[in-house]
Amino acid sequence: MAAMAVVVGGGLGAFALTPAGAGAAVRTAPLTTAVVTKAAASSCATGKYQKQVEGYLKKLGGYGTITVDGKQSAADCAAIVKFQKRFGIKPAQGLAGPTTYDVAKRLAATKTSACKPNKTGITFCVDLTNQTTWVMKNGKVFVKPTITRTGMKGYRTPSGTFKINKRTKKEWSDPYHVWLPYWQRFIGGRGFHQTTTYIHDKWRGSHGCVNLLEQDAKQYYSIGKIGMTVKVIGRRPGT
């Protein structure tokens, strides 16, 4: 019976080994880039909102090379996965589903100039309509828009101009019996803090606070100081 060869390695220049004593390793034909790319693309499904998500990510920039054609490619898949990981979308597998579409659309629709920040110093901006937030410094974007989740119906986060008046790395909420990491209060019992639930469960909402992903909550806390301005604009749909 002929000896069975086992392929070792990947990419260009893979080679095959035969069982011990069957002879020297036999080098196979190189795997072409096209074959590798096709294999990678085939492992990433095409979602319902493929073309729309491609367009939004291309507009936002920073996620790699994207072709807006509604056809999944290895590059498109990698870009979508990167986007999903950045904004805590689960599972981060490159599928352009409704959550990925919704988040990308909200970020692409955000107009940072609508915040009308202070001409000098730091201004934290919250767009209730698009459920996004960002930071301005001396009138220019300092931290790019990210997603948030604000007060649900009956607990609407108010619009207006406020000041940070309390900061603690871990605040206990008496009404809701939960710790609020990276707490920065700006009006009443409302403030910025790391979300305590999956931020993309939109129906849950918050009880008036501005929920943030962990990395964003940490960054906001590192920037924030007592007395800094918070500008909240728009109104969350349905509230």
Task: Note the topology.
Elements: E1 6-8, E2 15-17, E3 26-27, H1 33-42, H2 50-60, H3 74-86, H4 98-109, E4 122-127, E5 132-137, E6 140-147, E7 160-163, E8 166-173, E9 178-187, E10 190-194, E11 210-212, H5 214-223, E12 229-233
Parallel strand pairs: 4-12, 10-11
Antiparallel strand pairs: 1-2, 2-3, 4-5, 5-6, 7-12, 8-9, 9-10
Give the structure's gist in a few sentences.
The chain has helices at residues 33-42, 50-60, 74-86, 98-109, 214-223, and strands at 6-8, 15-17, 26-27, 122-127, 132-137, 140-147, 160-163, 166-173, 178-187, 190-194, 210-212, 229-233. It is of the alpha+beta class and 239 residues long.
The coarse silhouette is globular
Task: Flag low-confidence runs.
Answer: 1-42
Give the DSSP E fraction (strand runs of 2 or more residues): 25-35%
Helix content: 10-25%
- Written as H for each helix and E for each strand, in order along the chain, the element string is EEEHHHHEEEEEEEEHE
Going by CATH, the architecture of the largest domain would be Beta Barrel
Count structural domains. 2
CATH class category of the largest domain: Mainly Beta
Largest sheet: 5 strands, mixed
* Fold-level CATH name of the largest domain: L,D-transpeptidase catalytic domain-like
Q: Structural class, please?
A: alpha+beta
For the CA atoms, what is the radius of gyration? 24 Å
The CATH superfamily of the largest domain bears the name: L,D-transpeptidase catalytic domain-like
Q: How many β-strand runs? A: 12
Alpha-carbon distance between the termini? 74 Å
What number is the mean pLDDT? 87
Strand order of the largest sheet: 6-5-4-12-7
Put simply, the count of helices is 5
Protein name: Lipoprotein-anchoring transpeptidase ErfK/SrfK
Signal peptide: 1-24
Active site: 193, 209
InterPro entries: LD-transpeptidase, LD_TPept_cat_dom, Peptidoglycan-bd-like, PGBD-like_sf, PGBDSf, Transpep_catalytic_dom
